[in-house]
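Entry:
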Amino acid sequence: MNKKILALAIAGVIAAPVAAQADVKVYGKASVETGSIDNGKDTKTLQGDPAQDKGPRSRLGVLATEDLGNGLTGIAKAEFQYDPHDNARFDAVTDVVAASDGSTTVTATKTKGSPFTGRDSFVALKGGFGLIGFGRFNGVYKTHGGVKYDPWVTTSLQGRFNGGMAGSALGNAGFINDLVVYQTPNLGPAQITAAYVVSEADGLDGSYQLGAKLNFGKNVEAVASFGHLDPVDNGDNWKVGAKFKAGPATITAQYEDVEVGGFDGTGQFLYASAKLDFGKVSIIPALGQFSGDDDNSDASYAAVGAMYNFSKMTKGWVGYRDTNADKDEKDSSATTIGLRMDF
């Protein structure tokens, strides 16, 4: 009997740390891409994390949740970007060390810095009242349509930065610091999210974003969003969009009127994509148009490619993108092949 009690005690001690970690999830995405980008002046070989410095896909994250009772859940998240191609160092500092014997000098370099840089990180409470969180988040504008509607997001075929969607953290890219975010519970078919910048550290205090989603069954969704950048006088962006699913096809459409993050000044974006699934293969065409408020500032965007789903976790793609602008220096095209695993 004593041996059984001892065995149970040992098992309890071993299981305790596991139980303590039961609500902690470690996850990530690893993505690489190779090909070429022609910016109208020269052609660069593309190798590494997709889209270079404009929306890399690779990341590692930790998500912790705790049941606090009475329908209340505590949430904490910390996510970090990294580059699986060359383990690039962020905020890097390079030391050069030279040694000489009088006739020969040898130099060596050593780069110091972190292989990770921060993405979103926050603490939140969720309950019957909805969700309230504090920290660094994806913009509300970004996640209503935007990155959720572009099948090529965070690849060199994506619409943002390339004439199809607004860029910048106040658009469909990046993260916003020092936010207070509130999201309602489902209000029938609708859910509303609001975010407000509270800190003066980045000079954006007073900026805010609002977003609404409406779901009409499982196959039809509509979104609307508005963002205001303070203290800029002309710092307003707004958008409307919709997504439809029918059999093997998923179709998205989005219209934006932007004063922040336009392709060439202020203007309007029109974007549409289709994802056509045939077994493990998806054919994905996408089109976009930027109509600039200034003369000679329009641009068109087009991308087409195929994605092969090896599994739910691993997929590869090949595709081509073309951006044709009124100003020749803003023209670009990309031919790419990539591989990604979500874990």
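The longest helix spans residues 2-20.
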